[in-house]
Fold each of these.
Amino acid sequence: MDVIHTIGRRKTAIARIYLKEGKGDIVINKRNYKEFFPVETLHYVVEQPLQLTDNMGKYDIKVNLKGGGITGQAEALRLAISRALLKINPEFRPVLKENGLLRRDPRMVERKKPGQPKARKKFQFSKR
């Protein structure tokens, strides 16, 4: 099996992964994923597709992550891992799809409008 390259996105975060057979190392920007993501819930998010398909510890994953915050990056990585597992074995599709791991979350930050302090917030109205 050669190296499988996939991409995952969420908000402004982009995760490019290179997946190959190995002993289960996940390296993000040359750091271990448990060191890169300090929160335990984000470890679960990253491991979720591997746990659902019983592939924990079977593949080495090298990740280039950029943009966004840590939650967006973790979810972008989850999508990329799910897509890579699908390339390895198309039979994983029902399990991953059932848990919503194959859908790119389309929600983005709404742009700031002119004459307003934020996207929807208005300056205080003064009648006089």
Amino acid sequence: MKPQELREMEIDELVRKEAELKDQLFKLRFQNELGQLENSAKIQTIRKDIARIETILTEMKAKAPAKA
């Protein structure tokens, strides 16, 4: 996902998306260990998406008190 798309989401949507991606990452790692994963680059992509979401969540939480 692109950072701009993520910044347009609400905090609860981002948290939900992060949980979904972590679950998907767990399943991909499991497939990789069993030798069933065809595209191992997908693991890296999902890890980067999770990191982007965590960064944007941190930014949003830092800005939240400034708005009040």
Amino acid sequence: MKLKNYFSCIFVFILFFMMSGSCHRVGKASKSFDDNTPGKVVLSLNPDSTPRDVIYYKVDPSGNITDEAIHEIHYFPNKKKYVEGDLKEGKREGTWYAYFENGKVNTEATYEEGKEIGSYKVYRENGKLLFSGQFDKGICTGTWLFYNPDGLVSKKIEATPTTIACGWCPKCRSLQHNH
């Protein structure tokens, strides 16, 4: 039994070394990351040994991986993406996507310095909108629209300082706590 565990540990070490040791990525994050993109480090595996959590690191001009994470992808056990987006200084940056297991987009959000900004959309598995709204530095603002299963607007909420619109930003959580 100990010999089997020993070989399992060696296999995981070799797999990690092979996947992280041959990385030669230079510059900013691109919009296309895959198995051949240099800088890829697999953090954890699914039970079938496919990647579950992957971080891409910036590579210096000499081809060495730096400690600056520039992109991350998380996968479902069925090998389809669960969450993906760019990083800057350890925080979410740019457009991030979350997916359903069928591969369709679940959530689309834009981040700046780790906080939601601009348009925020959440979809049903059939691709129709569930709700949409706006963020400003992580706080919901503007008009939030909620849609019925047919895609028609069923409710509008104006995100004022005293209304709960999104339900999870710091303002909404504070209002929920005070009620």
Amino acid sequence: MVNIILASKSKVRKDILEKNNILCIVEPSNVDEDPVKESLIKEGATPEIISKNLAELKANKVSQKNNDNLVLGADSVIDLEGMLISKPENRNEALNILKRLNGKDHFLISSVCISKNGSMVWNYTDKAILTMKKMSEKSLKDYLSKISDEDLYAYNVYQIEGEGRKLFSKIEGDEDTIMGLPIKKIKEYLIK
């Protein structure tokens, strides 16, 4: 078993690690993501670069306080036609995001970073392509009515391992990437 510090309060990420025999201590980074995203968008950063930067920032921040420990930071974003889609702050915003994704392909990008002593030692980014079904506004509202506030604000507008799977006509990519943690690559690194 490998020990690692997870710089995230995501229950799903913690579960993925534990199912793969990676013991983790949870120590959320509490990074304020919005100013970082705004700054990077002004510089012309793609959603993928934003995801990578946030994963590294989270890992490095927690790593600075935990010498000689491996710290895993992670970030997932939605890329719709090159535009970053952030987590909704309320149900109305969630509905608007679903309307934007409705009937279209988008990328779900998950980046991970492992840091030690305040510096990145490894990182990886993976993408999945999801095709959302064309749905009526009533169907989208019905879907949202089944999602708890906690899940809605924690996992963006869909949880692929739950009700969210019903939204899609096609999913191409690694399921763990979609859930926020490309575990196969993390294990490869940790085994080395």
